[in-house]
Amino acid sequence: MSNVAGKAYGMNVITPMPPWKTWINQFLFMVARGLPGFLSGLLGLSLIHFARWVMIRRDQWPDLGQGKPRLANDYMLFVSNFNGTWDQYIDAFSDGIPNGLDLFWYSSSKFPHSIPITPFKNYIGANQIDTTYYYNATPGSAQRDIKSALRVAAALKDLAAWHGGPGGNPERFARAYREALTGTDGKPGIQNHFGSPGFAPVASTDTDDADRHREPFIRGRKPNPPFR
To answer: What is the reported pTM?
Structure first.
């Protein structure tokens, strides 16, 4: 299935902006970087691996042999990697920072606002570019799985450092091991961090079916026209 690598989904969305509005988005991003609390709803979403917005001016597109592009608009590129389905991600975004999304896409042409959700999903889908090559180093693990594994590894290293070697005390080690599992002095243990990595169940085969059905048409059509 395109855009999917194990439990993760890669999203690329590029939207046009009138050049005279580009400075507005640049100013809004500067404010967001200076005031992280502005993004608290986004930062609290544990399903997100990475999210970035990039402004690309119309004269910044590379010439790879096709000639220098002559474009009427600047563009904003949104790149993200996350766990779960496309719908779950868009729903979480819209619920988490609806006002923030409206500001980030404020200058994008025909942006319908993030609420109601259906026009927003249609807008993202219309401007999304499929990820045809997507590498994931840990395809069977979500973000929480990786964080849990790191906590377990750190606890085991501490046990080995303090209680390993021929001079170790078995009783002291057993007590420390139990404390590492259950926690001590208000510090949580690691017993709830033994996850079960593996591929998540397929939420829907509709996307896979659609990709397969339209492949003959895509292979036979003419090249896409250049950006305008």
So the answer is: 0.71
